[in-house]
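Dear colleagues,

As part of the handover before I leave the project, I'm documenting each prediction I ran so the next person doesn't have to rerun anything. This entry is a single chain, and its sequence is reproduced below.
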Amino acid sequence: MRVARPWRGWLRAAVAAAAVWTLAMVAAGPVADLFAFPRPPLDPARYPPTRAIPLADGTRLALAVFPNPSSPWHVLYFHGNGEDLGETARLLRALSRHATVHAVDYRGYGRSEGRPSVATFVSDAIATYDFVVGQGKVSPERLIVQGYSLGTSAAAQVAAHRPAAGLLLGGAFSSLLAVPRLQTLLPRDILRTDRALPAVTCPIRLFHGVDDALIPFAHAERLLAVAPHATLVPLPGKNHRTAHAHDAEQLGAFIRALEADAQ
């Protein structure tokens, strides 16, 4: 007569659950890469002149500079996920009315080499800062780190790890998993802007479309809760796309506020 061993069934269930969990963790990165980095096709006619940023692994990122010799300010700009330097060239020129703009394309975007990945996203952003400041012509005391949408995560991480005069975030998300379209796709949370902001010591300005359905306004409120020294500017009637058109306006207002505080 065989003796029942219920623990064997529990063990098999535990092993199966562990296997599923491990598979989900392994798949999290590729799934995030797929949905976080939809690259537009390269349009050579719209793409601005760039120089290469050499990374430690040999990859070269494309960096565009839009100079403003009359302004002492500089901006390190990180764009959204569905655009590249060609798509944002007009916006970057608008930003350059207020400061010299340094804008980078992520891996695999535009003329940047490599393949976009959440695994290299933050380190690439910090390497971009180090390259721009390391040239000796940009002082952190006059450098604003700015990002929109996906770029806000890169900008926040840079400001959390490097000195800057200010951090300007538009259409920011608290974390990638909290974005409504990704909640059922990612088994673990990544790109935690809400964890980066408490480490940022420079002034922070957030602006966000009140009618944003892609990244709801509640994300901005969550970020303000973890960084109470930040300023939140609601944009009534604006969605995720139309709020993007306020990048230059918000940069000008932020610079004026920083200059007033310095007096």
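The CA atoms of residues 149 and 172 lie 5 Å apart. Residues 14-29, 182-186 have pLDDT under 50 and may be disordered.

All the best with the project,
I.
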